Every structure is written in structure tokens, then in C-alpha cells.
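Deliverable D5.2: sample structural annotation.
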Amino acid sequence: MSVINGRMVVFLTSLGVSLDSYSAGFSLCAPDELIIASCQLEEAKSRMVSFCASADRAMVSYRFGLSSNVEINSVFFSDRTLSRWVDLATYTVYLGFRRGEYSYVFGVPQERPGAKSFLDVFKDNKAIMSAKCTDNSFGEKDIRISAIKEVADEFVRGYGFVFPPNDIAEH
């Protein structure tokens, strides 16, 4: 985690609890993985969304569900990448990918009081799920690794705000 309330760090450190064990309860990432983004959804099932980088930084995993039941686990490498777009108007970081007729978009707003991450799921470019998180995500959303492909802000705007881009689109 890159940003945590300073008092929380002191409190956890004084208890002898590592940040890794603290974050493990709030993500679906393994202890040796780096949390890129993660949150618990505001819903009755209390499912989580997590993007996790492998310890060697060779792959990124998207996981959705509960720690006891991961419903979706998609893996990205340098030849099958996750897309990342930073909206320069709002400084929201978007992580997204397509899986068949579905597309998944996770937004991490600029870190400010009251900001909450969110997950949008589309089927054939029509929204079928939109869920807010209980809080914002405080992972390493800006990490630079080959499994994440940057999509330029001007490309997304010029492409009618379609994100993630279709496979045939150049980005």
C-alpha cells in the first residue's frame, strides 16, 4: 500500500502487525503479491475486487469475489495486457479489460476525502453492474510493469470514451 493514514501505520507498527497482514484482509491478493488496487464493494455479499501484481512483477491478476470463493480470476502478461487510463480531467485511474462480450472497468478516484473506488461491468457495451466500494483503493495503481498497457487520455477521448479499447483499436 502506498498511502495509508499515518496514524494507522503507527498504530499497526506499535502492535507489531505488518502492513502486508493488514492489507491481506482487504484484498484477494496473496501475501507475496503487490496490491495494485483493491476494495470491498458496497453490497450485501461484501465481495471484493483486487488487482494484484506477482512478486516477480511478470503478471497481474484481477480477482472478484470473496476470499472463500473467488468468482473471477483473470491473469494478464506482457502479451495479454490490462489497460490503464488516467483521466486528465479528474485524475481518476481506470484499470480495464475485456473478456469475451464483457468488459470490466475499475476506477480509482484522486485521493481526497470521501472518494470511493468503483467497478463497472458491461455486456456488449451496455452497463449491467455498477458498484461503489466502501472506500477508495490505496494500492500501487501507478506501478509500471509490462502486464499493464497505458492508454493515452487523448485516445480514450477521441475514441468516444470507450474503455478499455476494443482489441482492434490502436492504443
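Annotation notes: The beta strands are 34-40, 48-53, 60-66, 69-76, 82-87, 92-99, 102-108, 118-123, 126-132, 148-151. Residues 85 and 152 are 6 Å apart (CA to CA).
The annotation will be released with the project's public dataset once the embargo ends.
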